[in-house]
Every structure is written in structure tokens, then in C-alpha cells.
Design brief:
Shape: globular
Structural class: alpha/beta
Distance between the termini: 39 Å
Number of helices: 21
Strand content: 15-25%
CATH topology of the largest domain: D-Maltodextrin-Binding Protein, domain 2
Largest sheet: 6 strands, mixed
Number of domains: 3
Helix content: 25-40%
Number of strands: 20
Length: 604
């Protein structure tokens, strides 16, 4: 099942997996030698929420003295707690709040009586092992586990949390008994704003439909994979859910080595430069053909510094889509052990308070941003402070006439966090992200996800905002409202949605509720976009009647989304196109059904 599901000791789940591997070997032989067997169909799913209220507030505050580089003696006598996370620039707020990898003199962590160590770990599987190690020690009665291989919390991409929490929860239930221990999101401290992206040939950007038949390397189940899926589904393309097969009529994914985002970049480069390929079983219309396809990797989903590595090495490549467009998709998210956290709320809230306060300083005072880049360099032990400072802001490049973007991060102050989770304005952006990614996991089944976990942990159990709300003596500020007054001219994505209406009516059928919920979730994640809605019909009835009906149906979709909270000012165009733009024949019932559609275009 991949490294993500690996544990140090055999559990019921582990034993089951061993059995499945043996059975899988038998089935695998049948797959190769028995062409025509049915496999998972490639799927066209609904995309993720795109909301336009940009979460980027500044709360005016007097400048705080910068943290020093010397270790703190004030908190040295306090129990040491550890968090672990990727080398990811969107963690700058918590890192500078700590003064570096360990709490320093004059730092905000010291001020909040927290003795914290931040550990870099780029492998998702090892982050999981560190949190499991912490729980093992805690379960034996150690109040503050001391192993340097343990962490009470991890920091990952918020859109990767449904996968991480659900698989981890299954492992915890198997090891310690059902519901004895839990892990939960306790808050967000930053946001990827372009840093995480899908990279591919420039032709994909010119014509997203040209991605059909491509192979992309990614950490399956993680945030960069989600970014790619959002773009693919928003453009009406299908995804092959099986990373061991190749579907020429869909976009295909392969798991990067060691679940490592840097390996995704390296595998793309190796494929394009030296002809490295992946051997995959060909599948057409959900059936194996019996052929093996040696397919080169065409693109990758990664983040900084993986993006710079690709652009330095390859010509003709660019960022196809990123978290700058899906601006609410990927929060820098702390996932902590619930049972330990509720016993030590002052530590958890103290970490959040220090991080959010430092982030507000970074937004207002450049020397705080400079100090953050120095702390990040020391914590990640890679690149230079100037590199991380520049990449935090985002950088542009151009190679042989093709432009590209690198980096781009944001940090959360308290106002941002309160807004992101809907506490201040009622729009829970993260809930939309969590629910949509949960749907992706269920439908696409990465790493045999559905067979490995008994259920996806629902949002209400996975997220605990108590520690965020428990913060005292901090200015929350005022959340800014989105400005949709400007006319958008550039198409970000355009997809066709089959929304069912009652016969000869503009009343939306209840069967389309799930589709509309997915559209709403997509709009929340890309909150900075404006919208074009265009209704289409088949050729039944008169042209005049069809034009009128298509207009009413487009307006019905707008009304549904408006009632969910999408501002009316965000809809740039709502139009009925009647029967004049068919995408299939009108002779068959299937063709007519395809023509009855609503096209939603995201504009930026």
C-alpha cells in the first residue's frame, strides 16, 4: 500500500495487507495474462471549491523585537515538545516565532512559555512514524515523550489531511483499540500561494485538453496531487484512478518514489532527458487490452524547490496551475494528537498564538520577513536565506520565450485563521476543501485507500478549532471582503457540467445536488476567480424556446450558488446559448443528454 501505510509493528491491518499482497500477486498475474478483465474506469469528477475572498489580512500592530539566534534559557527547564514538517516555505510564521529549529532567546515561543523543536521531514511516511512513536511513548505513561524520532504534531498541507488522518486513524485503531487515540487538525498557520503546482509542457496551458493521455508523477493523496486534480476536473477531463495502468483517453498518475515531492521533479527530468519510462498495463474503456505500455513521464506535481529544479533542467515547461489560482486550497495545517493536546491546551494554543503573531509581524515589517528566511534556512538546512526570502514572495522566470512562476507563500495572522475556518465571516473554506478531497479519495482510491481504511474521517471529527478559539490577548483584526468589481479577461479553466433539470423546466433535479456541491467547493478553493455560466440545450423544441430555457437554467445554477453564499457580483456572465453549440449529435438520447449542460468558466 506504499510507505504511507507502513507501521513498525505488525497489526491487524498489517497482517491483512500481507494477505492482500499475496492475493494481489495472483491477481496481478491474471491482469497481465488475461486481457479484457475489467478494471476501474477512468473518472470525470467534479472539481473543488474556488472562493474569491482572498485570505490575506493585516492587523496593525507595533513592531516586536526580533528573536535572537541564541538558545532560550528561560524555557530550557520546560518540557520539550516537537513538531515535524516538510521543507515548505509556508511554515515561515511558526519557524520565525520559534527563532529557528529550537526556541531562541526573545522569541515569541519563549514569550508564550513553549519549548519547541521543529524537525524537517520530507517523507510523509516518516511524519506518520514520528507521530505514531509519540503515541506509543505517551501510551506507556510518558507525559512528554523524549525520543528525537517522535512528534506530538506534524505540519502538512491541509488538503492532504483527509488522507493522512484517515489512514493514521485506521492504524491507531488497529494498534491501540478503536477510538483510544485520535489525531486532529488544530489550526492553520499559513497558505501556499503559488508554491505548489502542476508542471507540464506549455501546450497544456494553451490547450488543457492536450493533457489527455499524459502521465504525471506526484505524491498521491497529497496536496500537489489535489491541485492537479482540481485543474483536470475543472477542464472536463477524466483521470485514470489506477497508477499501475495507462489509459490513453485520460490523465494518468504515477506515485513518486518514497512519496517524495522532490523525486516527482527528478523523475520528470530523468524521463525527458534520458528516456526513463514506466511500464504500465494498457486499459481502454475500463478493460485491460493485454498490452504493456512503456510511458515517459510528461509532467509532475511538486513545490519549491522542486519547481526551480525542473525549470533549470528542462526547456518548454511551465507551471500549468498552482495554489495561486486555487488560493484557498492548501493551508499550512497543524495536525496534533488529540488526547495529549486536551491535557496541554496552553501549549497548543501557545504555539498557535506565537505563530499567528509572528506572521502578522512578517506582513508589516520586512526585517521580520528577512529574519524568517534566516530561521527557515537554519531549520531546513538547505539553500540560503535570500533564496527562501525571494521564493516566499514568488519569482518569475523566462526560458526560450516560455514564462514560468516559482514559489509564492503566505502566512496566517489571527484574522486570517478566523476567516479561513469561517469563524469570522461564516464561509468555512477549509471544510469545503476537506470534503472535496474526501470525495477524490473515495472515487480515485489512491494506494488502495478504500480497502485500507474503514471510513474517511469526517470533517467534524478531523478538525478541532478549540485551541484556535482559546487564544487570548491577541488582536483578531477585521477580515477583508473580496473585490469583484474588476472585469476578468483570462480563462483559468473551463468545464462542462451535466446538471439535470426536470423535463422542459429550469428546476434543478435533486439528482444533481452532489454535482452542485462539488462546483461550490471548487469555487471556494479558487476564491479569486470570477465566473461565466452558459446554459446549453439539445435541439428538441424551437430555437427560441431552447434559448430561453437555457438562460433560465443558467440562472437557476447561479441562484443555487448564490444561496450557498457565492456573491452575485462574482458572476461576470450568465447566458443561455440554446441549441447552437452542441458537443454531440442530437440523434441519439445519449448525444442529446451530453448537449444539455452548463459550462462554467473560471476567469482571473
Amino acid at each position: 500500500m506504499g510507505k504511507i501505510l507502513r507501521t513498525n509493528r505488525l497489526t491487524t491491518l498489517s497482517e491483512l495487507l500481507i494477505v492482500l499482497v499475496v492475493i494481489g500477486g495472483i491477481i496481478g498475474a491474471l491482469y497481465v495474462f488475461a486481457p479484457g478483465l475489467k478494471v476501474d474506469d477512468s473518472k470525470m469528477l467534479n472539481g473543488i471549491e474556488v472562493d474569491k475572498s482572498d485570505v490575506n489580512n493585516i492587523t496593525k500592530a507595533e513592531k516586536i523585537e526580533l528573536p535572537l539566534n541564541t538558545p532560550s534559557t528561560k524555557v530550557a527547564s520546560l518540557p520539550l515538545v516537537r513538531v515535524a514538517g516538510y521543507a515548505w516555505n509556508a511554515q515561515s510564521g511558526i519557524i520565525v516565532a520559534n527563532g529557528g529549529p529550537k526556541t531562541t532567546e526573545g522569541s515569541l515561543m519563549e514569550l508564550n512559555n513553549v519549548n519547541l523543536e521543529i524537525i524537517r521531514q520530507d517523507w510523509l511516511s516518516e511524519l506518520r512514524n514520528m507521530q505514531m512513536k509519540f503515541i506509543e511513548e505517551f501510551d506507556k505513561g510518558t507525559e512528554y515523550p523524549v525520543s528525537d524520532k517522535s512528534a506530538f504534531a506534524v505540519i502538512i498541507m491541509g488538503d492532504g489531511a483527509p488522507f493522512y488522518i484517515s489512514t493514521m486513524q485506521q492504524a491507531l485503531d488497529d494498534k491501540f483499540g478503536k477510538d483510544k487515540y485520535h489525531i486532529q487538525v488544530v489550526g492553520g498557520i499559513g497558505l501556499s500561494y503559488g508554491e505548489d503546482k502542476l508542471i507540464g509542457p506549455n501546450s497544456w496551458k494553451v490547450d488543457p485538453k492536450s493533457m489527455k493521455g499524459s502521465l504525471i508523477s506526484a505524491v498521491l493523496g497529497d496536496g500537489d496531487w489535489v491541485t492537479a486534480l482540481n485543474f483536470i476536473f475543472a477542464n472536463g477531463l477524466k483521470v485514470n484512478p489506477d497508477p499501475t495502468t495507462y489509459d490513453p483517453d485520460a490523465v494518468n498518475f504515477v506515485a513518486s518514489e518514497n512519496d517524495d515531492y522532490m523525486k516527482a521533479s527528478e523523475e520528470l527530468i530523468k524521463s525527458q532527458k534520458s528516456g526513463y519510462s514506466i511500464s504500465l498495463k494498457e486499459v481502454i474503456d475500463g478493460k485491460l487490452t493485454g498490452k504493456m505500455i512503456d510511458k515517459k513521464i510528461d509532467g509532475c506535481a511538486t513545490w519549491t524547490p522542486g519547481d526551480k529544479v525542473v525549470f533549470d533542467a528542462l526547456d518548454g515547461y511551465t507551471d500549468i496551475i498552482s495554489t495561486k489560482e486555487f488560493n484557498n486550497q492548501m493551508a499550512t495545517t497543524i495536525i496534533a494528537v488529540k488526547e495529549w493536546s486536551v491535557k496541554h491546551p496552553e501549549i497548543v494554543s501557545g504555539i498557535l498564538k506565537a505563530s499567528l503573531t509572528a506572521s502578522n509581524q512578517m506582513k508589516q515589517y520586512d526585517d521580520w520577513a528577512v529574519r524568517a528566511s534566516e530561521a527557515v534556512t537554519a531549520t531546513f538546512n538547505m539553500e540560503s536565506a535570500k533564496y527562501w526570502y525571494d521564493m516566499f514572495k514568488g519569482q518569475k522566470g523566462n526560458k526560450k520565450g516560455i514564462s514560468y512562476n516559482m514559489g509564492g507563500s503566505r502566512v496566517f495572522n489571527y484574522s486570517d485563521a478566523m476567516q479561513y475556518y469561517g469563524i469570522s465571516d461564516g464561509v468555512n473554506r477549509y471544510k469545503s476543501v476537506y470534503n472535496q478531497v474526501s470525495n477524490y479519495l473515495h472515487e480515485l482510491n489512491p494506494f488502495g485507500f478504500n480497502e485500507s481504511v474503514k471510513r474517511i474521517v469526517p470533517y467534524e471529527e478531523a478538525v478541532n478549532l478549540f485551541f484556535l478559539k482559546n487564544i487570548n490577548d491577541i488582536d483578531a483584526g477585521t477580515a477583508e471582503k473580496a473585490d469583484y468589481t474588476k472585469n476578468a479577461v483570462e480563462v483559468m479553466a473551463s468545464g462542462e457540467w451535466n446538471i439535470n433539470f426536470e423535463s422542459a423546466s429550469a428546476k434543478i433535479s435533486s439528482s444533481s445536488t452532489k454535482t452542485l456541491e462539488s462546483i461550490y467547493n471548487l469555487l471556494i478553493q479558487a476564491e479569486n476567480t470570477k465566473l461565466k455560466l452558459e446554459g446549453h440545450t439539445d435541439n428538441s423544441g424551437t430555437n427560441e424556446a431552447n434559448t430561453s430555457l437555457s438562460q433560465l437554467r443558467a440562472e437557476a445554477v447561479m441562484e443555487y450558488l448564490s444561496n450557498k453564499g457565492i456573491p452575485a457580483s462574482r458572476f461576470q456572465t450568465v447566458a443561455g446559448r440554446g441549441e447552437d453549440f452542441p458537443i454531440a449529435d442530437n440523434v441519439t438520447a445519449l448525444g442529446r443528454a451530453k448537449n444539455r449542460r452548463v459550462v462554467i468558466t473560471l476567469m482571473k
